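Quick one, tokens below. Sequence please?
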């Protein structure tokens, strides 16, 4: 069962897991706090760690509460949808035939069977986004792998609720969010460069900043552009990981934002 700790006027949920370090998450849209902690760590130790980062917590809460979000989608006529950073209106055509998606001038024509459910329409558009992202990836991967002298073992494209991308430095596997298809091309390229940079430096530390600055000097501009764009109404969380968590000195942690 989850436990709750009081951080002044902020309540935080504590989840016990078989992990080595403490992970602190701030979730939209309200700034809810959840802490994942090792199974046998004392609750007082967890609370001390969390209190030491109250300024960070409050800062991330302000960010998630201010974050622009898309309204929940109904997938009906004249609903706004985005591709490559441009706005399109959805045109739903009901017909007794196999589903289709056709991109026309400022319109996405969605052909579905009569009475199709919202979930089915959403799945069709998500599948198209996944395929479009797969088509866009090869030249961008080749470009950035060559520039950085790294190689991803595999790149998976999937819907991700809380991250634009994820890289596993051990396996060299990379995951990318299908929602990147909706964003301007430079945002996709930034996330690819960001994740591949983790094959050089796994952490978001000073060395990582040097790496990404070297290969993509304008990365901060692209990151801010991505932050300013609306995200799904679920969407991105902020996470901090405490290293060497039984210790509480100021050098025992690092933090990173997945709202890259």
């Amino acid at each position: 069962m989850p436990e709750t700790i009081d951080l002044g006027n902020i309540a935080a949920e504590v989840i016990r897991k078989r992990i080595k370090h403490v992970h602190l998450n701030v979730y939209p849209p309200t700034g809810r706090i959840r802490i994942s902690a090792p199974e046998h760590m004392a609750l007082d130790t967890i609370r001390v760690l969390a209190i030491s980062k109250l300024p960070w917590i409050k800062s991330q809460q302000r960010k998630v509460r201010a974050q622009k979000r898309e309204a929940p989608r109904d997938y009906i006529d004249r609903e706004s949808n985005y591709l490559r950073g441009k706005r399109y209106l959805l045109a739903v055509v009901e017909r007794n035939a196999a589903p289709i998606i056709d991109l026309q001038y400022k319109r996405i024509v969605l052909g579905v069977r009569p009475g199709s459910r919202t979930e089915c329409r959403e799945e069709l558009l998500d599948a198209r986004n996944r395929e479009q992202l797969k088509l866009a990836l090869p030249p961008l991967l080749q470009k950035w792998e060559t520039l950085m002298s790294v190689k991803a073992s595999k790149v998976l494209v999937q819907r991700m609720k809380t991250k634009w991308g994820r890289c596993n430095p051990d396996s060299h596997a990379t995951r990318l969010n299908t929602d990147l298809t909706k964003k301007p091309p430079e945002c996709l390229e930034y996330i690819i460069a960001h994740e591949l940079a983790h094959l050089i430096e796994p952490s978001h530390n000073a060395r990582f900043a040097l790496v990404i600055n070297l290969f993509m000097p304008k990365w901060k501009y692209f990151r801010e552009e991505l932050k300013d764009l609306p995200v799904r109404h679920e969407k991105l969380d902020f996470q901090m990981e405490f290293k060497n968590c039984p210790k509480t000195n100021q050098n025992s942690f690092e933090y990173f934002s997945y709202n890259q």
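Residues 118-148 form the longest helix (31 residues). Residues 223 and 260 are 6 Å apart (CA to CA).
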